[in-house]
Design brief:
heterodimer, A: alpha/beta, seven-stranded parallel sheet, four-stranded parallel sheet, 36% helix, B: 97 residues, mainly beta, four-stranded antiparallel sheet, three-stranded antiparallel sheet, 6% helix, 24% strand, disordered C terminus
Amino acid sequence: MRAASGYLRADGRKGIRNRLLVAYLVECAHHVARAIAAPFAERGVELVGFSGCYPNAYAQEVMDAVCTHPNVGGVLLVSLGCEEFDRSRLQRTIAGSGRPVATLVIQREGGTAPTVAAGRAWIEETLPELSRVPRVPVRSADLVIGTKCGGSDGTSVLSANPAIGRASDLLVDAGATVIFEELGELFGCEEHMAARAVRPELARELRAVMAKARRYHATMEHGSFGGGNITGGLTTVEEKSVGAYAKSGTRPIRGLLRPAVRPSAPGLYLMDMVPDGPVRWGYPNINDTTEVVELIACGAHLVLFSTGRGSVVGSAVSPVVKVCANPETYRRMSGDMDVDAGRVLEGRGTLDEVAAEIVAVIERVAAGEPTRSEALGHQEFVLGYKHFEPLGPACLPRPAFGGR
Amino acid sequence: MSAPALLRLAPEDDVALALRPLAPGTPLGPEFAGLALREAIPLGHKVALRPIAAGELVRKCGVPIGRATRPIAPGEHVHVHNLRSVVLVNALDHAEE
């Protein structure tokens, strides 16, 4: 990858973007945070946050991870004042990471207008500081790539997902870290996945989380499967799973993550996003964006997003690369798509050519080129309530980052 | 020669996928000799390659993707009206009843 396009952070990780985040810590502070960020949309300022008033360890960990993500250069926290989110802990975490951070408490500042004015003034002051972050070259081995699908249809298994799988193999071979996810779309793939685990104890963990996902979805009486999938030709969740699993490629599975846990060495990982314990707070993930945010919380610099029906979403913090499986969708919505994978269905290319194109797009985006969703201003962010137990010792490989 | 119409992902598959929207009677090429489409098949949707009995597992990509809920004739569209998940019962499945 070209010259010094990356941003070196104090923990040694390299960012491919240098965002300044405005983070609301309860829905009551959302409007004020949005008003603070709005005038700076063209200058890399983005809005993230957590709507809930009651505390949740998972949400706190995801906010910690997002606010200290390598693509983030600084954070302004916006609190109403009486919510239970631990804003002091988040402020300490961010400050400890060497990033500029400030907290505005609306009830202390004197309401909406004074808080908006104070927030905008802080951003004006802080943006020049962000531009002094040391610049460094970024190589494939520095990157964490998330893979995800949304709006799948009958073409996903034929083009975009296997192309992403081949790109995943190329990236892993180049020393990158790749994360796949969505247990609710891996039903029927359990034994195949377990056979790819690098350690027998990890294979047991993979089977256990899939059994958990099956119980969870059975209790909810609904899988990760919807009307749009059916219109697109997918009949059952296990049929959708065959396609979704193709995104993981063929390389060994090195570890199992949960949201906000970072991979400890390069290679391929599965992210478990189904909560532990009894079913609480509803569906594991209410939409595609919740999963994109979880991948970002695991450190993903960039997310490969396969779509057949035609999703338009992007994300705050990390660029989303849209890989379109369906040639009809691509013709209708090309302005939202980064890669035309459906061309393999029309004899205009092979899966290997699309995979090579995906890797080339990643290199350009890592060097600063905006994705389609970035250029269109997409900055989706959703974070809800979940409960997770700590990961077992078999889930992660021994750390290799930072030299052995 | 027109672009290929159908793709069988694995040799043991009971269904093939439409590579473009297909009208009934569309010529399917030598690999699918003897098969005639009984109805229109949208892009990415499945068509039965052999007679499938009610209750039989249906394979795509070499793995079962569900169980037939009624007999399916070769050339028929295979979808929610004649195939049901064995893994999970969906709210949408209930809606079909």
